[in-house]
Design a protein that fits this description.
Blueprint (H helix, E strand, L loop, with lengths): L2 H12 L2 E2 L4 H7 L10 H7 L1 H14 L3 E3 L7 H6 L4 H22 L3 E6 L2 H5 L13 H16 L5 E7 L2 H11 L6 E5 L1 E2 L2 E2 L5 H9 L4 E7 L6 H11 L4 E4 L5 E3 L4 E3 L9 H7 L1 E4 L7 H11 L1
Parallel strand pairs: 1-12, 2-3, 3-4, 4-5, 5-8, 8-9, 9-12
Antiparallel strand pairs: 6-7, 10-11
Helix pairs in contact: 3-4, 4-6, 4-13, 8-9, 9-10, 10-11
Length: 299
């Protein structure tokens, strides 16, 4: 195991770690335009200092782990927006460099290089459905180049986020197994199952069985999904569990906006920790205020 991944596991043996909050959410709060299909990747390309400042905000709020702005940086999606392959590779590396810079300034923490699902690239809400129609080999081919670049970009591990289906989890694991590249695998559940309707516990068990996977869990879900997901993970693995849900609002893919009421239950953080979560943070519609509250709850 790499020194950086080992140090993270050593820290988890002592205490829970705080993961940062929504990067796109914070960029938007700061006045950045994240309305394009590239979402935060457009800001990464045009205004990298804004991304750096968001990482700084989260470390200042108490985050131990920064997730990079590479979630929406895909070769296919960026090509539609006019970026060639070399420029896309540059964006992936830049995302890690910025998070590392903020981490080094803060003097502590780890950097997780974000890899979003195939559906996110489509920018039509497919990551919340999981009905892609692609098989394992097709998804492996699509993910491979981005994984290879991020594995060599200097992050401490890769964060595979918002995975909606067993077939995509299987594809990611097939690419990881035997490489020595460490990662966490985080799926997005709805009503206790994957967005594809498949069993949540099956995906977590598959992920936990791969040596390169150092933690499993859920993200980009309603806060009410978290306890059930922790229980499902605990039934299949002793590896660390990561949870970083949304604020409780719902994404409207057609209108490209969030609806509903934000009610991130920071009072539930202790119950998530007591149930077995080791890494806790926030996803969409959470910001430094929620991360600071998580930090306070855990300490």
């Amino acid at each position: 195991m790499t020194v950086s991944a080992l140090s993270l596991l050593d820290a988890l043996a002592e205490r829970a770690l705080v993961v940062d909050g929504g990067l796109g959410t914070r960029l938007e709060e700061r006045g950045a335009d994240v309305s394009s299909e590239l979402w935060s990747a457009r800001v990464l390309a045009d205004s990298p200092e804004e991304v750096l400042d968001v990482h700084r905000d989260y470390f200042a709020a108490g985050a131990d782990v920064a997730i990079t702005a590479s979630y929406q940086v895909t070769y296919e999606g960026c090509a539609r927006a006019g970026f060639d392959a070399d420029a896309t590779t540059g964006l992936l590396r830049r995302s890690v460099e910025l998070a590392r810079r903020a981490r080094d300034e803060a003097g502590h923490g780890w950097v997780a290089a974000s890899v979003g699902p195939y559906g996110a690239m489509l920018a039509d809400g497919s990551e919340y459905r999981g009905d892609l129609g692609l098989d394992v080999e097709e998804l492996r081919d699509w993910h491979r180049q981005r994984i290879d670049v991020l594995a060599g970009a200097g992050a401490d591990l890769i964060a595979f986020e918002t995975m909606p289906s067993l077939v995509e989890v299987e594809a990611i694991l097939a690419e990881l197994a035997g490489t020595g590249t460490h990662a966490w695998i985080s799926v997005t559940p709805l009503a206790g199952r994957l967005r594809s309707g498949e069993p949540l516990a099956e995906a977590l068990a598959l992920a936990a069985a791969v040596d390169e996977v150092v933690a499993v869990g859920v993200n980009c879900c309603a806060p009410g999904e978290v306890l059930g997901a922790i229980e499902a993970a605990r039934e299949v693995t002793t590896k660390p569990i990561i949870v970083y849900p949304n604020s409780g609002e719902t994404w409207d893919a057609a209108a490209r906006r969030w609806s509903g009421r934000a009610a991130f239950p920071t009072e539930a953080v202790r119950s998530w920790r007591a149930a077995g979560a080791g890494l806790i943070g926030g996803c969409c519609r959470t910001g430094p205020g929620q991360i600071a509250a998580i930090d306070r709850a855990l300490t």
